[in-house]
Design brief:
alpha/beta; Rossmann fold; N-(1-d-carboxylethyl)-l-norvaline Dehydrogenase, domain 2; 2 domains; six-stranded parallel beta sheet
Length: 294
């Protein structure tokens, strides 16, 4: 099976490199320098989507939003213009489940199939091969794609039909965003009242409040050379999508709606491309306290 990958950003690039350990991979990204870097690492860099689509039996895409996925598939020179009937697209974007289902329906007359396979665990999980891959697909589609996903991580979950993977990812990210916002707010309380960040990090990692945030995000704030992990804008997008789906399906989400507004406040102050961990700057300002060591 010839495999292609579209979208070589922080997450997509890490996933693609995992695949390259076991598969000869065709890749495409809008940035020529990124394509060239992957070519030096052994990938087959394609100059356009049409060429990549014509060469591949399965194309994985990891892009910022469903809007970019739609463009990659349905643009005049997109994947749908050249992929053959019976080929498969796996959308690894954290996207809109309704948009994903609509795209799958739109592709049916072409014989090209679309499944969703968003991932959870961050770029470090992708690099380590421990990331969770959450697949919305028919049983037959899942079995076709599973051997390829296995080259990325053993943690592969089948959630049901197309779009269900996106729903599960939104559930995950609403919880993750809420825990992070609440943790940063509570740490501001502690520091304002005499604790330091290191004390909070050490104790929260061993107590009942431990979470991804206390085990990774908070310790990361102590590292002066910390790297970008995920942007405020992308997390706001995910929480907004979740609350949109909740509104459509009659599910009250007052806490998630509050977290969405916290993230919007941070975006207004810091910018959408700011690292998600800088959300703590909002708590610092509101509490009038310095939390992160200078």
């Amino acid at each position: 099976m010839k495999v292609g990958f579209v979208g070589l950003g922080r997450m997509g690039g890490a996933l693609a490199r995992r695949l390259m350990r076991e598969h000869r991979l065709a890749v495409y990204d809008l940035r020529p320098d990124v394509r060239e870097a992957f070519a030096r690492e052994g990938a087959e860099a394609m100059s356009d989507l049409r060429t990549l689509g014509a060469a591949c039996d399965l194309v994985l895409a990891c892009l910022p939003t469903s809007a970019e996925v739609k463009q990659v598939i349905f643009a005049p020179d997109g994947l749908a213009a050249s992929m053959r009937p019976g080929t498969l697209i796996a959308d690894m974007t954290t996207g809109d489940p309704n948009a994903t289902r609509q795209m799958a329906e739109e592709l049916k007359p072409t014989g090209i199939e679309l499944i969703d396979a968003p991932v959870s665990g961050g770029p470090h999980g992708a690099v380590a091969g421990t990331i969770a891959i959450i697949v919305g697909a028919s049983p037959e589609q899942f079995e076709r794609a599973k051997p390829i996903f296995s080259a990325i991580s053993p943690n592969i979950f089948h959630t049901g039909g197309v779009g269900s993977g996106q729903i599960m990812k939104l559930v995950n990210n609403v919880i993750a965003a809420g825990v992070r916002a609440a943790t940063f707010e509570a740490v501001a309380l502690g520091v304002k009242n005499g604790l330091d960040l290191r004390t909070c990090v050490d104790i929260l990692a061993k107590g009942t409040a431990r979470s991804y945030t206390t085990e990774l995000a908070l310790p990361g704030l102590l590292d002066p050379n910390r790297k970008m992990t995920f942007t405020l804008g992308l997390m706001h997008k995910d929480v907004r999508l979740a609350t949109d789906v909740a509104s459509q399906s009659g599910v009250p989400m007052p806490l998630a709606s509050a977290v969405r507004e916290v993230l919007q406040t941070a975006i207004n102050e810091l910018g959408s491309e700011t690292d998600l961990n800088d959300l703590i700057r909002v708590s610092e300002r509101q509490a009038r306290v310095d939390i992160v060591p200078a």
